Amino acid sequence: MMPFRPARATLRAALRTLAVLAATATLAVGAAAPARAADAWPSQPIRWVVPYPAGGGTDVVARTLGQAITPALGKQVVIDNRPGAATIVGADAVAHAKPDGYTVLTADTATLAANPSLYKKLPYNADKDFVHVGMIARFPLVLVATPNFPAKTLKEVIEYAQKNPGKVNFASPGPGSPHHLAMELFMDQTHIKMTHVPYKGAAPAVQDLLAGQVDLMFVDLASGQQNVTAGKLRALGVATPKRLAMLPNVPTIAEGGVAGFEAFAWQGVVAPAGTPKPIVTRLNAELVKALKSPDVQKRMEGVGVEPVSSTPEEFAQYAHAEAERWGKLIKAKGITVD
User: Same fold for the domain at 46-138+265-333 and the one at 140-238?
Assistant: First the structure.
């Protein structure tokens, strides 16, 4: 009996069918892999990179939230402080980390909104290298004056600066910081000119302000609340839409005559681009739950920070809007740091 030999056309068709089935199976396995990884997440500690030194307001917020979400996740959240270069050091480390859900970053106004316009070259791309997880905090800014400054109210400050262009100086934690940009916005809206004195951080700036070496500064309550409440610094106005519960007697800057003025230092959590969406969704849910906890709110508000939660999509929209807003101001003022 002659052996069976299928026709060449039939054989080719069969081979094509097998190839299609194999490719389909490969795609199915590939699609299932992220899902399985997300289902198993977390199976090891999660590294939360904080681009500031330990002990500051940003560090306190991250540690507070990390401790709060650890029980729900079943794995430890480990804080990794990577300070330097206006958050660039920490942001660079996370932008190039493996997108497996085990590395996240506290990203703030500098990281996502200001740096892309301040620096000609960045080792990360704010739009492409991260996925937004959710907002976590806002740091209300307060315009304060050294006790011996001759102007006692916001209106008097504006009038004094108008009569003495360039003679009034103001401190900031550094060029391009939210505090610096808030003052640039303030000068822009009030049509005054003052001299910027940048420092390497908020602490030395506040110390010189207390000593009367500089006249004015926008401080966040995390670094300035104690001196404001003790009366060592004169609070002239808060850069928030409404008065702050922590400083109920201090008017908003809008109330002081600068209509619509608003400026915050804000923070959120991001992960490397490509992090599986189910992991992002789970992490966001745990952060939102923690931010609604009375204990977490009390701890954050105790250091002058406003807890703020959002969806990943809301945080992405907010960060992009802030990048556009501050980017326009930076370019209009010609502010650069390199």
Answer: yes
CATH number listed for the domain at residues 46-138+265-333: 3.40.190.150
Long-range Cβ contacts of 55-60 (<8 Å, 24+ apart): 56/222, 56/223, 57/139, 57/220, 57/222, 57/223, 57/303, 57/304, 57/305, 58/106, 58/108, 58/267, 60/222, 60/299, 60/300, 60/303, 60/305
What pLDDT, in 10s, does the model give residues 295-338? 999 999 988 899 999 999 999 999 999 999 999 999 999 998 87
Backbone angles phi, psi at 259, to 5 degrees: -60, 135
Which comes out higher in pLDDT, residue 117 or 10?
117
Q: Where are the domains of the chain?
A: 46-138+265-333, 140-238
Give domain 140-238's CATH superfamily.
Answer: Periplasmic binding protein-like II (3.40.190.10)
Q: Which pLDDT tens digit goes with each residue over 112-139?
A: 999 999 999 999 999 999 999 999 999 9
Q: Which one, of 128, 131, 121, 71, lies nearest residue 101 by Cα?
A: 131
Point out which residues pair with 252 in neighbouring strands: 238
3-state secondary structure 107-135: EEHHHHHHHHHHCCCCCCCCCCCEEEEEE
Residue 197 CB contacts under 8 Å (≥ 6 apart), including other chains: 169, 170, 171, 172, 205, 208, 214
